[in-house]
Write a structure and sequence with these properties.
The chain is an alpha/beta fold. Helices cover 33% and strands 22% of the residues. It has 12 helices and 17 strands. The protein has helices at 12-19, 23-29, 70-76, 104-112, 132-140, 142-159, 176-192, 219-225, 249-259, 295-304, 336-349, 364-373; strands spanning 3-5, 43-45, 56-64, 82-90, 96-97, 116-121, 164-166, 197-201, 228-231, 268-273, 276-280, 291-293, 310-312, 317-324, 327-332, 353-357, 374-376. It is globular and about 70 Å long. The chain starts with a strand and ends in a 5-residue tail after the last strand.
Length: 381
Amino acid sequence: MTIYTVKPGDSIDTIAASYHIAADTIIYNNQLSYPYRLAVGQALLLSAGPSAQERKTLFTGGYAYPFIRRFTLTETLPYLSNLFIFSYGFTVAGDIIPPALDDSWMIALAREKSAAPILTLTPFGPDGMFNNNLISVLVNDMEVQQTFLNNLSDVILQKGFEGVDIDFEYVLAKDRIPFSQFVANVRALVNSLGYPVSVALAPKTSDNQPGLLYGGKDYRLLGEAADSVLLMTYEWGYTYGPPMAVAPIHKVREVVDYALTRIPAEKINLGIPNYGYDWTLPYEKGVSKARTISNTEAIEIAIAYNAVIQFDQTSMSPYFRYTLDGLTHEVWFEDVRSLREKFSLIQEYHLRGADYWQIMNLFRANWLLLADTFYISRQLP
């Protein structure tokens, strides 16, 4: 596939003529809207023919809430090994709490499209936030944990899940070992049903990295406890932080370098963000709040305000600025250039796979590029 960066004076027709491809293909691959204006600096994926390169097998996953549009999920599932359904909670008594909306249609559709539906576990409290006290009870109280495991088994069998993903954030440092043992216990149960268990890991770069996100996540122990792990290599640029790339490649590489000293490459999935942020400047710590946007929305904003898209060579990520109502905005997002860098890192380190947070917005060019780069592991019909 060819990635083309739009220059001043370019149009869909002139680009199509230069590369001897149909304009409709460019429009479809890049989800362009009529009248098909382009932003200077925009990266376009120009073709989607059969791959000419030898492709490594990749396991892919995407997180989705039950309110995802059926069209978006249908378009995305052909590129997924696993659909992580977000999410199932639990009580201090070990009872399982299903999502507020029915997810049975997602499970059925995933199976129909040869992707495995995965039950995602999260410890959300009544306020909708991650609750580390809830985690502490579950991982330390063996009676509660056994009740939980029994209930988990029932839900998996009743609903037709084909695996479990454990996404526990803010695990207390004192629960580091009990949490790892809990993951091992879940794996023993789920493996006995014939399915795998994965666990999400905050992006650490050392064993003793300070911070609430990191203290309870022991890479070595969790790598041993689970069948695979997800490195949550995103959110350097985040809602309440200063403007910057969501997943700068040099920072992502640091996490992978450390992870490989504790976990085998064949167990590691790289986390990839499917979104960007729009900040209003000037940034003020504790006051500013970025707006989450899709990658295609970022392009639409750049076109609407005649912004020129830049590409930062350190983070290997696109960004631009525009002015609205007298205020300057800064936008960072993902495009096929930044994604190509992440795919190259997966190839370089021979990692197991790529998991996306999240797939609620369709980004077709990403999936076409992914399928051109890798052979995506799929279930047998």
